[in-house]
Write a structure and sequence with these properties.
With about 70 residues, this protein is mainly α. The chain has one domain: Helix Hairpins (Orthogonal Bundle), CATH 1.10.287. Helices cover about 85% and strands about 0% of the residues. The protein contains three helices and no strands. It has helices spanning about 1-10, 15-35, 45-65. Helix 1 runs parallel beside helix 3 (about 45-65). The longest helix has 24 residues, at about 15-35.
Length: about 70
Amino acid sequence: MIKNAIKEYRELDQVGLVALIAKLKQEYRLAKETVRLGKKKNHASLKFLKRDIARAQTVLKMKKDK
């Protein structure tokens, strides 16, 4: 699944990646708040969201460097 996500990120242009990163960061903030309030017990999802954000940022950096 991770390779598929990276492949999808690489297919996006820079504007699409920036929009995706903003969306993922918003999801992370919401998930973090629900975990903090105790509404959600699965805090492992935060780790996966952070990794997805980092992957998208890495692909964006690679595109900017080219």
